[in-house]
Design a protein that fits this description.
This protein is α/β, with parallel strands linked by helices. It folds into 2 domains: about 5-115, Cobalt-precorrin-4 Transmethylase, domain 1 (3-Layer(aba) Sandwich), CATH 3.40.1010; about 120-240, Tetrapyrrole methylase, C-terminal domain (Methyltransferase, Cobalt-precorrin-4 Transmethylase, Domain 2), CATH 3.30.950.10. It has 10 helices and 10 strands. It has helices at about 15-20, 20-30, 40-50, 70-80, 100-110, 120-130, 145-165, 175-185, 210-215, 235-240, and strands at about 5, 35, 60, 85, 110-115, 135-140, 165-170, 190-195, 205-210, 225-230. Strands 3-2-4-1-5 form a 5-stranded parallel β-sheet, with helices on both faces. β6, α7 and β7 form a beta-alpha-beta unit. The N and C termini lie far apart (about 60 Å).
């Protein structure tokens, strides 16, 4: 049975051996067909693993928001009897990227799906945040338009407060500061916010503070891959702790 390998990739200029297990590196060397977000980035990644890899012998299909779904389907069907590797732009494929569409096809055509161990910025941010790790939700990207984004932030804060649920989301790096400022302006002073930037890199920064505490601090998140987490204090939970 052919296999679909979900291949992790470092989230920055990290030492491969420290974040990507050896069995993953060996699997990558054996795969000849790849479905990727960015062909150029993937080629560079493969060469960093082993300079002897002959890139010209490999087949690549680029999948992104502009990809024609029929073209993806045709490529997949043509290669479904061979092992295929799926490579995201950073971290593990299938979360907040088009990889899920490929996995859906693999299940449809009875391929074995093999998730491989590697860095996940979402889980790494959660476990380092000090927030609820038993009840959490990943919301992907929030709306781009300011009014819609603010409305969504308030909804997530309310849900967190009502359900004791950590809310996790991400943003395009150049919009990070707009997101951060909207959080400070629209969340309650006691709501905790975790900023997790450049995870697993030399410039890694992970801090959790209340909105009131963040307002006393200056931070620059421009162009830094960042995961945002919020956890709102429930009046009921607070009273239980105080009694």
């Amino acid at each position: 049975m052919a296999k679909l390998f979900l291949i992790p990739i470092p989230m920055g200029e990290s030492d491969l051996q420290s974040v990507i297990p050896d069995n993953v590196l060996q699997t990558i060397k054996s795969v000849k067909i790849f479905i990727v977000e960015n062909i150029r980035t993937t080629r560079r990644y493969l060469k960093s693993i082993d300079k002897s890899i002959n890139i010209d012998e490999l087949s690549f299909f680029e999948i992104n928001k502009r990809t024609n779904s029929q073209e993806l389907h045709n490529f997949f069907v043509s290669n479904k009897k061979s092992d295929i590797g799926v490579v995201s732009e950073a971290g593990c494929p299938g979360i907040a990227d088009p990889g899920a569409d490929v996995v859906k096809l693999a299940h449809k055509y009875n391929m074995q799906v093999v998730p491989m161990v590697g860095p996940s910025s979402i889980l790494m941010a959660l476990i380092a945040s000090g927030m609820n790790g038993q009840n959490f939700a990943f919301n992907g990207y929030l709306p781009v338009k300011p009014a819609e984004r603010i409305k969504k932030i308030k909804q997530l804060e309310q849900r967190s407060q009502n359900e004791n649920q950590t809310q996790i989301f991400i943003e395009t790096p150049y919009r990070n500061m707009a997101m951060f400022n909207d959080l400070l302006k629209n969340c309650m002073p006691q709501t905790r916010i975790c900023i997790a930037s450049d995870i697993s890199t030399g410039s890694e920064y992970i801090k959790t503070k209340t909105v009131a505490e963040w307002k006393k601090q200056t931070i620059d998140l421009s162009k830094r891959p960042t995961v945002f987490l919020i956890h709102a204090e429930s009046f009921v939970r607070k009273n239980k702790r105080n009694n």
